[in-house]
Amino acid sequence: MMRGIVYKSTGSWYVVKGTDQAFYKARLKGRFKIDDITSTNPIAVGDEIEFEMEDELENRVMITALLPRRNYVNRISPSNRRLHHIIASNLDQSLLIATLKDPKTSLGFIDRFLVSCEAFHIPAVIVFNKSDIYREKEMLIFQERKDMYEKIGYRVLLTSMKLKYGVDELKDIMHDKVTLLSGHSGVGKSSLINEILEGANIRTNEVSEWSGKGMHTTTFAEMRDLPSGAKLIDTPGMRELAIADITKQELSHYFPEMRRLLNDCQFNNCMHMNEPGCAIKQAVLDGKIHEDRFISYCTILDSIGSKGW
Questions:
Q1: Least buried of 134, 170, 239, 263, by fewest C-beta within 10 Å?
Q2: Cβ atoms 63, 27 nearer than 8 A
Q3: Residue 9 phi/psi, 5° resolution?
Q4: How many domains would you assign to the chain?
Q5: Is residue 215 very low, low, confident or very high in pLDDT (cuts 50, 70, 90)?
């Protein structure tokens, strides 16, 4: 029996790296498919697994056990709204690549991603890329976003892969960590990897003219080893991010600026909507909680069903 880490998932086959540093093509043992799993993918990139050799000539192995996960980030499956899809597991941090134009990343998408990370205690860094195409209008918006998110404890960076601006800082952030890289298609994730991991030559695509949205260039999640010893998990570009496994009652706990004030509400089960004596709503009126963040909270709250989907 050997142990390893899942580096790539294609849905039915996996690439795993063993403790011997060799890569193997792997498949699941049949019992994985009948276990009570609510995820569309029982095994995800970043998972630590046990496997046994199946065919030495073809370097093919069978995954026999999934080891306990430290954490993971998930979303509602685009193909089945009743199931969730694990994006990646065993993470030290996440980098959300956002852009203010070509394509524009909405505050709603950013806040949904941050909530998903908060739910599993995964530190998140927001990276606004493509600064080379920002004019005065975009730079003012960036400064507003930076002030808003830094005030509540998130790190915010400005980068340009075209100008190689901010690349060294990104490398420092990733040093000796397992980092999830995510964002819409077209925000520059592939260009970022090509800069950080020389010789990667990941294919990049322009933003589609008719929709203003990026074209998908990464089909499956994949982990990559960086020269510094760090690991980077690249994910397919997401057009939307539907939150999974979070109930309405839990949501405010994953907004750091709200979490600090929850005990000040008049009612223990306050949803911060129409209840009297709500410390959260008062903080919004007092300017202590940004109005845009409260709008995100209300929008996400409205999208969550009774079971957290």
A1: 263
A2: yes
A3: -130, 130
A4: 3
A5: very low
Q: How far is CA 138 from the centre of its chain?
A: 24
Given a contact cutoff of 8 angstroms between Cβ atoms, the answer to whether 23 and 17 are in contact is yes
Distance of CA 100 to the CA centre of its chain: 18
Q: Is residue 258 part of a domain?
A: yes
Per DSSP, the residues of 104-145 read BPPHHHHHHHHHHHHHTT--EEEEE--GGG--HHHHHHHHHH
Pairing outcome for strands 93-98 and 178-182: parallel
- Whether the CB-CB separation of 186 and 98 falls below 8 Å is answered with no
* Cis peptide bond N-terminal to 42, omega within 30: no
CB 290 within 8 A of CB 110: no
Are both 123 and 222 inside the same structural domain?
yes
User: Cα 93 to chain center, whole Å?
Assistant: 9
| Same domain (yes/no): 197, 279 | no
- E strands present in 129-203: 155-158, 178-182
In a domain, residue 26? The reply is yes
Whether 207 and 103 have beta carbons less than 8 Å apart is answered as: yes
DSSP string covering 253-290, please?
GGSHHHHTTGGGSSSTT--SSS-TT-HHHHHHHTTSS-
pLDDT one-digit tens code per residue, 53-78: 998 888 899 999 999 999 988 877 66
Is-contact 62 27, C-beta < 8 A? yes
pTM given for the model: 0.86
- Domain, as residue range, for 296: 248-303
22 in a structural domain: yes
Between the CA of residue 52 and those of 8, 27, 34, 43, what are the distances in Å?
18, 10, 20, 16
